Amino acid sequence: MADNTAEGSAVTMTTAAPLSENEHVKELFAILRDNGKDASGLSALINHVQGMEDFVKAAEGKIADMKSQLDTIKEIQDHPVKAKLQRTIKALETAVTEIKAQIAELKSNIVEGCKNAVAAFKEKGAAALDKLASFFKIRKGLETIKNGTVKSVNQCDKSIAQVEAFSKEYHESGRHIKNMARVLVGKEPIDKAKESGKIARAVNAPTCGHKACLLSIRKQADKMINALDKLEKGVEAKRGAKASENKDKKPTLMERLESKKLEIKQRELEKPMMERERAPKSKGLEV
Fold this sequence. Notes:
Layout: H1 2-16, H2 23-34, H3 40-72, H4 80-124, H5 139-184, H6 198-248, H7 253-270, H8 273-278
């Protein structure tokens, strides 16, 4: 039981602290630097995770703003739209909690990938670092985060539409009441209600901000996927460049001599047997 508690505490510390401060991440960066390996791909992954965490904090702040707006705008206090918006806020809170858990798992997987990469380097040497992307099993987690943001953005759009509909209904009702009063005093009724504006803008502003945060989280996930792709392609490109370099490299003097010997030997083997017996033995090679 104590072991499980200790393990849980270790995971919490790993996911709570910034990745750049993690000892295993630092160790891998040092190894990459000391062995002349490109660390830009790993840096991009770390930075994008930090970006996600920042946008999640901003999204939580927008949810707090939504709750505040619902409590302060008197026009919606006794209207069914308030209950609908409260349900939407609850769903968004749940979604943000899920995204936070997914980011925590993502960070844990990145730390694990760094540990495995360091272990492979110590066992096999610098060549193990050429397959750096293979140590990070995070693509599936990134796709999950993307899908979660899409669902929450749809909830934001639905909430915005509900507020717009309420605002329009509110102004239309106000027009009818005012027209009743105008008719009683002999004035012409108003044909058109005011455009929905103040209430809708006030209630929807935090929702629009929350939606922007979700879209930014999704963008960070896309950037991380692109960084993974570049990390994988970078290794392939390096291998291709090395093969091309070996192909274009001019042979040394000893390599040319060895090649000449093999060529002469091959020509001798291709001659008929009788010619080979008559031919004088070579005393040396001309290069």
